[in-house]
Amino acid sequence: VSDNGWTPSETRDKRRVEEFAPTRDSKYSPFEDGIRTPILLRWDGRIIPATHQQPVGSVDLFPTVLDAIGHPEIVANLPGRSLLPAARGEHPLVENPVFGEIYPGDASSLGNPSRDIAYRWIRHGDYKLIVPHAVGNNEPWGRYLHEIALFDVTRDPGETQNLASTHPQRVNELTRLLDQWWLPDQATVGQTQPH
Hints:
- The protein has about 200 residues and is of the alpha+beta class.
- About 20% of the residues lie in helices and about 15% in strands.
- It is built from six helices and five strands, in the order ααααβαβββαβ.
- Strands 1, 2, 3, 4 and 5 form a five-stranded antiparallel beta sheet that branches.
- The longest helix is centred in the C-terminal third of the chain and has 14 residues, at about 170-180.
- It starts with about 30 loop residues before the first helix and ends with a strand.
């Protein structure tokens, strides 16, 4: 697993010329180029070489390892799921929602992720919902988005056309799933609503 995606800028950072400037597609952004990475599994003689296009998350790795070492009974009580049955070719990989969040580089308070949350997102099927969060009266960190955004990442892989206003039911459905996964403490952070 690599730690994050990143399509680098061709422009040098003004403050640190040895580095490239962050962009909309950098590792700090909530867009696909900033968060999507491959997960590779190898176990000679046990895993069938294949490519699976369905999104999975790093949260699936611990259940996969437990399953591989003979403890599938523990997997049911964990977040994530074992990828081993699909990797063995026993059944197709079922697409589940994948969740994530983006933070600035430095936390202002350990143990209080709501204080620094910048964006939460969910990818489910062809759609991805990004919810920006503004801390206090500040704009959402990075200023990548100022309102909830819904993208059809299959038809619009560059995430350029926000469909939130034309697909309110899908926004509500994905927001409900995202909030069930994790809803930041609203007393600490603000949430930008769709227009």
